[in-house]
Design a protein that fits this description.
Chain lengths: 247, 247, 247, 247
């Protein structure tokens, strides 16, 4: 087999094998992620630790062979090894080769980055390109709203500290602890572990929620409308002229 | 009565009877759904079980007769019986005929699928078509964001597990349990049954909320703007040319 | 004073008095709303009940005199008395005239409906018209999503009942009680009074949240984009042609 | 050094020094905000109070010198001292000069207002202008929705009080206390400190949430779409004519 064909098979571009091998590698990445999660379940740890180790050995073997094949098959070897993609491919099996303990399992989740290739396999590069273009479009707005959000959260935390720390010295013991309340409230998660109980604190919360919710939620709307604009743009540019679009 | 007229009456297209029979069948579907809910209330079970069974018998009778009439009246009998609509019509009374115990009540809620006909009755097919077209428009974006959301939730669950499982071995006992926290937090539901208590876990939560909320919330905005675009499109295409629209 | 001038003064259209009298009446409506709220505070009830009664007597007097003046000044008396506005004006003082107990305080909040006139006073009829037109534009979509939301909430309630009612017979004791959980979860309020604890119930919750959140949240986005379209429409239609808009 | 050059250095417009000095002053503002937060942590108060005081003395010194330089270098001294910017610059060090106790720390957070200059430094004035223009565009809608939101919250509070105050005399003891529930629910924060337990109260909550959520959430969507419109407007107006935009 020529090196070019090996690469085509690994990337799912081979006319005969098709996307089978590429899908299998992606499925293996997803399965190792599931395995990383299940390994931490106490009841499974006692019964099936052997299976988890075995599966990891298999996965590391496959990823290792894939890496070796890619290094061998790529014309510009040095370029691939030093590229971000090459480093991620290496990191998907090297840490497990060196240490196989569960305490290092987090580093194995780095493999998920490789799922980006899945979008290419599913022929969705256009959608990803649009997302990237949309984010670039609203980049400045995201920075402005990000900074405003940080300032609002800081001021909310400082404010609630002054209203509540005498009434609730444990929950609002310091401004850093009050900032936790500000994050949980302005994202509307509201776990209920900390909340104001004084009249002043509740009034302050009402005011800050009405002013602050928008600052935290507007960026989502911005990204959505930038994406919609990108889709319109794509449709106008990429489609051939002809009878009016009917979809 | 001709078979065609029977069908027209059942579908609410008869010029004399109008939509009365069709509305009555839909109302019966809604009432059986209410009945399924009320049957589970302990105080009603003791007093009124007889009434619930009686009502179910009535409903099964009506749905059975309607099914028989449709089979008899449709020109392409085999096609109707094997169509999705025909199977749903059959499932709306058959399970209750076979078993009438409350433990099977869930399967009766399948009848709700038949309410899709209600949209047609209410002359809202256009709105449903627009919704379908809008969903088709943003199909790729929904897949991309769906996959990104799954990856973010997975990474959030893995991350919080590492920060919290020594401090809260019960709430964050394993990664699958931590994933429950990730779902509840990133959808901003925030029941408050599990939440981070360590400084690192709280900082991690703040970061993941700011990055992750958008990924979960953007699809909603996308569907909304695609629907708005569809409405504009409809208005331009379906309306006759004339004086500028004033609505 | 002519009847026409009395009406103009009450409606804030008089060239001499201006909007003073109209604003004063609206301020009184807001103040009675504040008073209705404060009356229920136990500590204020004991000390200041006399003041609340006195203020209500004053307000009832003002609203009664205003009503009498409007009846006297309107050319088409019968039309005003029987109109919705006339009935609301009557209801803003009649119930308090008949009974002045706090247990009837709710009916007094009907007066708030009269604040709609405030929008006219603040010269914001255009914005209200746009809101009305936008709601009319998305009327069909709101009905479709409203029905879908009801169906999703019903199915969510039925589903969680089956997963949780044996594990939590108190919180999920019946389907109507489970529907409360469905409402609180799908609106992302998440009080934390009821939440799933079984693995199946949590997985079901995750799935239903991802499918259902959009159905509940999309209408908000629809109204927002219909309002934006109305604003564009207004700007194009109502502004005189000229140099390109710079705002 | 000429006064003009001193001003240019402070504002980050100097061709030689560049934005270094201006960035350093902004970094100092952020650091004092962090310091204000950390001062309230009990464990840091005992060990490092000396460091906090020392850092504050340094910051006050820098801000004081900057103020003096600006007064000296600005041609229109009186105009600068009496301008909003000048007053904020003065307030960023004067209160700390007079009193250095932690109980006055809130007033020091006023300095954060000065971070607005940071947007200018980061060349993001255009994005800020667009935000301002977008807010001006939807000004009327924001006022309408703000008033509607206040009315809905008031009516929600009055309603829930009538449903719940006999069942939960502590949580819903008065209408002002019930308003706290209304704010927490309609913003979807849902801490879980107060929630309805009666059937009527829960049904009322479900209805008010479906009607009210939109009123609270629509303004966010409006701001997002107004911002998107501004961005389109900018792109059309400010870019030179030429080949179609490819970004």
């Amino acid at each position: 087999m020529t090196p070019a064909r090996v690469l085509a098979i690994l990337d799912g571009r081979d006319p005969v094998v098709g996307r089978k091998v590429a899908f299998a590698i992606n499925a293996l990445i997803v399965l190792t992620a599931v395995s990383v999660a299940l390994e931490t379940v106490p009841s499974l740890q006692s019964c099936c630790n052997f299976a988890f180790v075995g599966f990891e050995v298999l996965a590391v073997g496959v990823f290792g062979i894939e890496y070796a094949l890619r290094v061998w098959a790529t014309p510009d070897r040095r370029g691939y090894v030093l590229s971000l993609g090459g480093i991620i491919d290496l990191l998907s099996f090297l840490p497990s080769l060196l240490v196989l303990g569960t305490e290092w399992s987090t580093i194995r989740t780095l493999r998920l980055v490789r799922l980006i290739r899945l979008f290419r396999l599913l022929r969705m590069t256009l959608a990803l390109d649009r997302l990237q273009a949309a984010l670039r479009d609203v980049r400045e707005e995201l920075v402005v709203f990000g900074m405003l959000a940080l300032i609002v959260i800081y001021l909310a935390g400082v404010g609630i500290y002054h209203f509540e720390h005498t009434a609730q010295p444990e929950a609002f013991g310091s401004i850093p602890e009050s900032l936790w309340w500000a994050v949980v409230s302005l994202t509307t998660v509201g776990y209920g572990d900390v909340y104001p109980i004084t009249g002043g604190g509740r009034l302050f919360t009402a005011v800050i929620l009405f002013l602050g919710l928008g600052i935290v939620a507007v960026p989502t709307g911005l990204i959505a409308s930038a994406l919609a604009a990108q889709r319109d743009h794509d449709r106008t540019v990429h489609r051939p002229p002809g009878p009016p679009d009917d979809a």
